[in-house]
Amino acid sequence: MAQRTVLLVLFDGVQSLDVTGPLEVFTGAENQAPGTYRIRTASLDGGPVRTSSGLTLVPDTSLADAPAPHTLLVPGGKGTRGPAPRLTAWLRENGPRAERLVSVCTGAILLAEAGLLDGCRATTHWAYCAKLARDHPAVQVDPDPIYVRDGHVSTSAGVTAGIDLALALVEEDLGRDTALTIARHLVVFLRRPGNQAQFSAQLAAQTARREPLRDVQQWITEHPAEDLGIEALAARAGLSPRHFARAFRAETGTTPGRYVDRVRLEHARRLLEDTAGGVEEISRASGYGTPEAMRRAFLKALGTAPAEYRRRFHPAPTR
Fold this sequence. Notes:
The radius of gyration is 22 Å and the shape is globular. It has two domains: 4-186, Rossmann fold (3-Layer(aba) Sandwich), CATH 3.40.50.880; 201-313, Homeodomain-like (Arc Repressor Mutant, subunit A, Orthogonal Bundle). The protein starts with a strand and ends in a 6-residue tail after the last helix. It is built from 14 helices and eleven strands. The protein has helices spanning 16-32, 85-94, 107-113, 129-135, 161-174, 176-186, 201-204, 211-222, 230-237, 241-252, 256-274, 279-285, 291-302, 306-313, and strands spanning 4-9, 37-43, 49-50, 56-57, 61-62, 71-74, 100-103, 121-122, 140-141, 147-150, 153-156. α1 (16-32) runs parallel beside α5 (161-174), α5 packs antiparallel against α6 and α9 packs across α10 (241-252). GO terms for molecular function: DNA-binding transcription factor activity; sequence-specific DNA binding. It holds the Pfam family DJ-1_PfpI.
């Protein structure tokens, strides 16, 4: 197998984890299979850069002297949110030469400004998806996935999603066993599904200000199989159903029913990922009652049935 050069672009204001997350993944792969990756970091002039958290990173070389990359990785951070004409010009000229073009978080903004995402489906940090779509209408922005792969272009959501994408690339290059070993070492999942929402039900909704509503949110999370109808939840909060529904939406930004749906989906998803329980058992434990009800919920939210979802995490062994 030919050695692949992975080039990580550095600049002032870069998000340090956007760099170090994928760097640890590719370095772990090189440690597992020596000679597969040649990993280099480079800034415009070869000088140190200061990350958004104040950490100083010293690159291996300048972009002008960097080796031609197989995989060109552009991280995100505060440094992507202002004009960067020199870096954009370098990407516009050199990006098309890479066999794989990868961005982490708002690194997608730099790729888009260089014209490298035109006509591509892409994602970025959820807080910047609207900006990416507004400023670059030729880019097909999908705000939900952890990462998107469209031909030779791969873009990931915020920060830690760069680890997910790097693991997917290593799995493509070196196989599942190598990628799984790295994931275990980093104590992360090998593969979150590509159409998983960028944040959990608890993070998607705001935390209520009033204690009774916060308690109800916590109760829902801890007891997805209980009666979570509006009357039962309102009684737990000590409010009338109408007052509870109005207050819950005002303080969390979502309705009680939608919040319950998200929590139950997330609970079922985790059980499918992490346990060997049957679909019927998981449907009851997650509050769906029947496998068919859970199947409909998965198809609506994720576009896949529970059995297929589980196969992504527990593929049948090859003979």
